[in-house]
Structures are given as structure tokens and as C-alpha cells.
Amino acid sequence: MANLQQGDKAPDFTANDQNGESVSLSDFKGKNVILYFYPKDDTPGCTAESCDFRDNYQSLLSKGFEVIGVSVDDEKSHKKFETKYKLPFTLIADTDHSIVEAYGVWVEKNMYGKKYMGTARTTFIINTDGIIDKVIDKVDTKNSSQQVLELLD
User: Fold this and answer.
1) pLDDT in tens, 29-86
2) Beta strands in the chain (DSSP E)
3) Candidate list 10, 33, 34, 46, residue with the active-site label
4) d(C-alpha 54, C-alpha 60), whole Å
5) CATH no. for residue 126?
6) What total of structural domains would you count in the chain?
7) Active site residue 46
8) Cα–Cα distance for residue pair 121/149, rounded to 1 Å
9) Is 7 within a domain?
């Protein structure tokens, strides 16, 4: 399991997005990327986080950032989520868990005493050279884009 930190090279990946198209992190070379990992489509926290990125998408774009969401849900689930909430950015379907494992966010969780594996809500800010500038591991779902913007200022 990776323990990625500021200054590390962001692991490249290739997987399908919500439209069934192949997307790689390297497709965004030369751009700043906000890569956010979330547990599950259409759940309260994940919806709040994704809609916050949607609502502030233009200001993030104006600062030179692309937004990419990643969860282990499949393309069909992502498409439904994107359509329902009018999300204007790429959602990656990491159904084989290769991306969450490469980024070290596939972790053991504990709910009501029951242990299970799941995605730790984490945001990586990746610069134009593919280097991780910041890691946010305590994400405020309702203000996730504001967290990012504050780190950029």
C-alpha cells in the first residue's frame, strides 16, 4: 500500500470514465489536477463533496485545475450519478481497485464494530509535472473545493 506524500510522483493510471472512454492521468500532463477519491456514488457525503466541486468547478478551471473523481463504482453507476447531479467533470470507475491501491486509499474501515475494506476519502492536488503538491486526508465534504482553494492561495 502506497503512502503518497507531497513531492511524490503521482502514479499514472488508465481506466474508463462514466462514458466508457479510457482516461489516463497522463492525458492531463501540463495541467493541474484535483484528484479526489470518494467511497460511493449517490451517498450523502459523496454527493455533498461532488456537488461542491460542481458548484465551484468554473473557479477551479479559472485557476488552471481539472477535477477528476475516483471511486470503485462501475461506469453505469458513475453515469447515473453524473446525470442526476449534473457533474461537469470526469468520474473514473476503478472497479479493479488498482488506482485506490496505487494511491494508498484502499483501507480497512470500521463501522459499528464491523471491519471492511473501503476507500478513504482523500484529495490529491497534482501539479503540471505530475508531482503531488498537497494531500488532503481530512476532507470536509460540504466545503471540499474551498479546502483546495485555500491551499492554492
Assistant:
1) 899 999 999 999 999 999 999 999 999 999 999 999 999 999 999 999 999 999 999 9
2) 14-16, 22-24, 32-37, 65-71, 90-93, 106-111, 114-119, 122-126, 132-136
3) 46
4) 10
5) 3.40.30.10
6) 1
7) yes
8) 18
9) no
